[in-house]
Amino acid sequence: xxxxxxxxxxxxxxxxxxxxxxxxxxxxxxxxxxxxxxxxxxxxxxxxxxxxxxxxxxxxxxxxxxxxxxxxxxxxxxxxxxxxxxxxxxxxxxxxxxxxxxxxxxxxxxxxxxxxxxxxxxxxxxxxxxxxxxxxxxxxxxxxxxxxxxxxxxxxxxxxxxxxxxxxxxxxxxxxxxxxxxxxxxxxxxxxxxxxxxxxxxxxxxxxxxxxxxxxxxxxxxxxxxxxxxxxxxxxxxxxxxxxxxxxxxxxxxxxxxxxxxxxxxxxxxxxxxxxxxxxxxxxxxxxxxxxxxxxxxxxxxxxxxxxxxxxxxxxxxxxxxxxxxxxxxxxxxxxxxxxxxxxxxxxxxxxxxxxxxxxxxxxxxxxxxxxxxxxxxxxxxxxxxxxxxxxxxxxxxxxxxxxxxxxxxxxxxxxxxxxxxxxxxxxxxxxxxxxxxxxxxxxxxxxxxxxxxxxxxxxxxxxxxxxxxxxxxxxxxxxxxxxxxxxxxxxxxxxxxxxxxxxxxxxxxxxxxxxxxxxxxxxxxxxxxxxxxxxxxxxxxxxxxxxxxxxxxxxxxxxxxxxxxxxxxxxxxxxxxxxxxxxxxxxxxxxxxxxxxxxxxxxxxxxxxxxxxxxxxxxxxxxxxxxxxxxxxxxxxxxxxxxxxxxxxxxxxxxxxxxxxxxxxxxxxxxxxxxxxxxxxxxxxxxxxxxxxxxxxxxxxxxxxxxxx
Length: 710
Hints:
This protein has 710 residues and is an alpha+beta fold.
C-alpha cells in the first residue's frame, strides 16, 4: 500500500501542519474566549434595578441580526447580515429578511419564514403599503408578499446610486418621521442618487449629507447629518444620530434651512449633546487585538511628540443603534429617554434628554441610577448589541449580532489579524426583550392591517409611539379624504398634545390643512405642537403675524423654529425681527446660524439695523464680531455689487466705541468671502492681494480701495 493510498497515513509535513493548527487553536482560545449559548449569555448580563431581560429569538431561527421592525399587524421582521465584515460580490450577498413567528404564544420565536434572501448589504427595513422598504446599498428596495405565503414575490428598486464599498458607512436605518418623511443615514458618503419612479427628475448628489424621501409625493432630498448607523426620532420630530466614537448628536437645523443660500461659512448643523463626554462603564476587558493596537498607536504618538491618546476601553468606539423610548411598557420616567448601544463595549447606554436653558438643543445626561454603571452590561465579550426597537408591547428589544470580532479587518494590523476569525459567530444571533421585573411577555391586541379609518383615528391616541405612527402611515397610504372632518375634530378636541400633532400631520398628508387650523396650532399650549405648526405655517402667508409673534415664545426651541421659519414668508418686516432675535439670543451659535441661513438675515440691511441700535456695539462681545465677520463673508462670497456697496457704506459710517474692532473683523470676513467666490474679477483680485486687515487704518484704506472698484 502506497502512502498516497493510505487514508490513515500522516506524512511529516502534514504532521507539522496539524500540530501548528492545534497550537494555533489553543493560541486563539487564549486570546479570545469562545461563544456561549443564548441561555448562558443571558446569565452574563447585568441590568439596572427594576428590569429583567428575556430571550425573544435566537439561533437557528435568526442569525446576525442588524434590524428589527414590527408591521401594522404586530408581526416581527428581522434583517440578517451574515456577510459582514467581508464584501460580497454584487448579486451574491447572503443577506436575508425573515418573518418571525411565536406559534405557541410563549413569548419566544419558534418559527422563521424567509421573506427575502440573497440580498447584498441589507441593513434596515420599514413597513410600507403592505410590504417592506429595505436599505441595501447601492439601493433602497421595496419588497412585497402579494400571495400571503410570507415570502416576498415582488421587488422594486426605488432609489439607486448610494455608496456601497464599506458596510459600516452605507445607507441605513430607515425611520418614519412624525412629519411623513422617511429618513435614512448616509454617513455623508458620495453618490448620485436617482428615483426610478421619477426617471426625469434630476439626480441628487448626497455627499456630506443624509437622505429623506416621501413616496406619497414622489419627493427625495438631502438631510442634515451625516449619521453613521444610529438614528432615532422622538415624539416631536427631533432627530438624533451618532457615529462610532460620538455616541449621541442632535440634528439642530434641517438641511432645507442651512442651504437656502450657498454661502454660509459653516453648514454643519449637528451637535454632540452629552454632558458626560464619551465615557462608558464597560464590564469586559478590551480584546487582545485592540489592546495591542492601542499600545502601538500610543507609542507612535509619543515618539512623534503628538498630544494625543487612544483608549482601548471605557470610551465609546462602537456606538451603533439607538432609539427614543416612547411607550407605556416602562415606568413613566423612561419616556423620552434615548438608548444607545456600543458593540465594542458589550453594553447598552441610556441618556435622559432635557432642554437646554441657553440653547435650542437638548442636554443628554446619565440617569441617577446610572452615574457609575450602564443600563445593561455583559461580561460575555461576544455580546454585540447592534440595534433596538420598541415593540408593540411597549418593551425594548435588543438585537445581538453575537460575534467574536466586530471590527473591519482593514483597520487592524496584519500581525494581529493572524489569529482572528472574523466570521466566528456567523452561525449565531439573538434578540432580547427588556421589560420590568414584574411584567410578562404579552401579545399585542392591536392589528391595524384591515382596520377601518375610525380605528386608525382612535389609534392616534395610543400610548405607544410605534402604534401611533403605524396608524398615521396607514391613513397617509389610504388617502381617504372622507375622514378629514373627523381628523380636524380630533385635533380640536383631543387633550393629548401628541394626538393633536399626529392629527395635524395626517391632515398634511391628506393635503387638507388650512390656515385657520395652523393658526390654532401656533397657539397650542404644547411647545412641541407650536414648534411643528411653525414649519407647517410656511405654506400659509396668512399666518405671518402669528409666526412673527412666535419669536417671543418663552420656549427656546419654539422661538428658534420661528427664527428659521419667518424668512420663508419674504416679508419686509423680517430683517428687523431677526435683529431683535440677535439682540436676545445672539450669544448662542445656533441662533446666529439660523439668522445667517436666510437671505434677510445675511443682507447688508442687518448691519445697518444693528448699527442703529445704540447699545448693540457698545461692548466688544466676541459673538457680535463673530456674527459681523460671518455676515461679511457671505456678502463677499455672494458677489452682488449692490449688496457689497451697501455693506461698505454702512461699515464706513459706523459710530460706536468698538468701531475699529468691528471694522477689522468685518473686513477679515469680507476678504475671506471674496476669496471664496468663483469667477472673481482680475482687477478685484489685484486689490485683494494688497489688502491688510490687521489695523483700523489699514481697514479704512482697504474700504476706500474697494469702494472705488464697486
